Amino acid sequence: MKLKTQAYLLSGIILIALLALTATGLWTLRVASNMDNKARVTELFKSAYSILTEVEKMAIDGTLEEEQAKKLATRLLRNNIYKDNEYVYVADEHMTFIATPLDPQLHGTSFNDFKDGDGNSVGQLIQRVLGNRTGQIIEYTWTQKLPDGTIEEKLSIAEKTPHWGWVVGTGIGFNEVNARFWSTAQWQLFLCVVIAGLILASLIVSIKRMLALLGGEPKDVREAVQAVAQGRIQTSFETQATAGSIYQAVQQMSKSLAELVSNLDASMLALRGELQRVEDRAGSIAQLTETQQQSTEMIATAMTEMASSANNVADSASDTARNTDEADKQSQHTQQLIHNTVDNIQGLAGQLGTASEAVANLDNDVNNIAKVLDVIGDIAEQTNLLALNAATEAARAGEQGRGFAVVADEVRNLAGRTQSSTKEIQLMINNLQEGSRNAIQTMEVCAATSESTVTESQNASEALQQIVVALESISSMSHQIATAAAEQTQVSDDISKRINMIEESGNQLSNVVTESHNSTQSLASLSNELEAWVNRFEVKH
């Protein structure tokens, strides 16, 4: 079957599918329209029914009297007007029309007198369907004879109120539903026909363009492509394709492939020779890289040992610096203690001098007291002599001088006790003077010793100050040594890292050389495979 026939057959299938899709859409539209009509009728019914039941409740709870409530419900329902094709009727428990907004002439007439298309009473039909059930929507169908003599089928619903037993109902004619459906279906069918015509026209134009694009039958194009795929490359063809077509592109591709295969064959020979030279150079680089890697490993080992030694020196210098700092701190502390001792000894020497002066003053005071006692002794001795003389004179006087003799005797006794006390005081003063002189001599010796101790302490402080200066100098040099050793260690580590980087780069270079060698071998293998593939093509002139 030719491509044109297949294209026309495909167009027919698409047209049939489009018609089937349109039919399905119309059927869906009909179902949706019926559901919409039913929902619309139900909403109209619920609106009127809710008004009536609310008025019933007002009558039940006593808000309105029953007659007033019925009149209010009648007035509200008769004014409940909808569109021309929408209606809601209300009949009382005897099926007498209470409200028919679109047909007010029916008010007061009996629903039982309203006949369907077969002459049966519609009111009786509704009563038979409803029965005694209240508060439940009942669906029923009936027929109506139109003025033109045709019979229309109608779908209606009705429900009886729970208290008054009034019947509320509504419905819609199928003629209206069908008219609305066909008004929509006509333009959909027209649109479907227009779309089908456009699709057919587009398919015809596309088929012609596709045939022109192919430049021949697909069979011829397929055979040409299969020949290339099987390695049979042609440079001449029995028929020449249309310019700009796929068939012409296939023919041109076959000719280009023939030229490419010839060039590839020549290039493979040159590639094989170049690969051999690359492999030789890669071998030389690998040997040089191995030698460099060995030298780098030796340098890295030496640098590691030097870095370890530098670390040891740095650690020792740091320990020395710490010990020197500690000794410096201890020397400074000792120097401070010596300064405090010198200050205390100087204070003690001052206090000893003060005490020596106080003892000297005390010795002077004691000497003065001794002088006073000497005077008192002389006075007592003279008093004793005077008393003795007085007693002698009293004895001479006899009885007249006895009283005076008694007084003279008492004075003499008192002078004797005074002399005795003076001698005791003199003895104590002598002892006190001896102790004062000993204390003064001892204080003078202590003062001399304190001055000597202060001098020696000052000499020791100066010596410690020199030791502190020396320790500070040693500490500074130790820190400099530690810093230099740390810098040397850092430099050694940096050099070691760089040597390791060089070693790693050498390893990477070795790996790259190895990979390059492997790649060269792979290229050689691929070259052989490519040559085998090229040899599979057979160029026919």
What this model shows, in words?
By secondary structure, this protein is α+β, with helices and mostly antiparallel strands. It has two domains: 3-206, Beta-Lactamase, CATH 3.30.450; 282-532, Helix Hairpins, CATH 1.10.287. The chain has seven helices and seven strands, in the order ααββαβββααβααβ. A five-stranded antiparallel β-sheet has the order 2-1-5-4-3, with helices on both faces. A hairpin with a 5-residue loop joins strand 3 and strand 4. Helix 1 packs antiparallel against helix 2 and helix 5 crosses helix 6 (246-397). The longest helix is centred in the middle third of the chain and has 152 residues, at 246-397. The protein starts with a helix and ends with a strand. 13% of the residues are buried. The chain crosses the membrane at residues 7-29, 187-207. Keywords: Cell membrane, Membrane, Transducer, Transmembrane, Transmembrane helix. Residues 267-503 form the Methyl-accepting transducer domain. This is Methyl-accepting chemotaxis protein 4. One of its GO terms (biological process) is signal transduction.
Which runs of at least 5 residues are low in confidence (pLDDT < 50)? none
Q: From the alpha-carbon coordinates, what is the Rg to the nearest angstrom?
A: 73 Å
CATH class of the largest domain: Mainly Alpha
- CATH superfamily name of the largest domain? Methyl-accepting chemotaxis protein
Number of helices: 7
CATH topology annotation of the largest domain: Helix Hairpins
Strand content: 5-15%
SSE string: HHEEHEEEHHEHHE
| Lateral strand order in the biggest sheet | 2-1-5-4-3
What's the mean pLDDT score?
75
End-to-end separation: 32 Å
Structural class: alpha+beta
Question: How many structural domains does the protein architecture include?
Answer: 2
Oligomer: single chain
The global form is: elongated
Helical percent range?
A: over 70%
